[in-house]
Write a structure and sequence with these properties.
mainly alpha; 158 residues; single chain; 2 strands; 56% helix
């Protein structure tokens, strides 16, 4: 699981590099599908990762920060770096014993649900991979080559 988090972080950084050549208007342009635009998608995956990990650690839901305060590539990158300071130590300290720890959450129907930490961690991974796929579709619609989604050749198994 740690390897997949490291994979997501590498791919995210690759997307940040990819975005550097894109005008800000294109990064903020509303698109079909996903959560609306490229920059908000990156912001969203960063927020979801940090929010769930913070929740597992503290049982507190911080809510989503206002996107308006982060609506530039540099601000989203800085947010990613700031949140990564909390996320990375938690991920790298992951043990088998943490798999079955639980948190109680209120689902979208207002019902209380107990989730295992292993389930939450895998949700975080799948969530980011899902949205990275959306970024790839938008890149192709723009006539640009997307970031590779290949896990192999990233040096993650050295």
């Amino acid at each position: 699981m740690k390897t997949l988090f490291q994979y997501n972080w590498q791919v995210r950084d690759d997307w940040f590099l990819w975005c550097q050549d894109i005008p800000e208007e294109e990064l903020l342009k509303e698109r079909v599908g996903g959560v609306g635009n490229i920059l908000y998608t990156l912001f969203h995956i960063i927020d979801v990762e940090q929010s769930w990990i913070h929740f597992m650690k503290t049982q507190q839901d911080l809510g989503e920060p206002p996107f308006e305060e982060y609506s530039s590539l540099e601000k989203v990158k800085a947010l990613s770096a700031r949140f990564h300071e909390e996320v990375e130590p938690f991920v790298l300290s992951w043990t088998d014993e943490m798999e079955l720890r639980t948190n109680t959450v209120i689902n979208s129907d207002g019902q209380s649900t107990t989730l295992k930490h292993g389930e939450i961690m895998r949700h975080i991974l799948a969530h980011e991979i899902h949205h990275i796929g959306q970024l790839s579709i938008w890149a192709r619609e723009m006539g640009r080559k997307p970031v590779t989604a290949n896990l192999i050749f990233r040096g993650l198994y050295k």
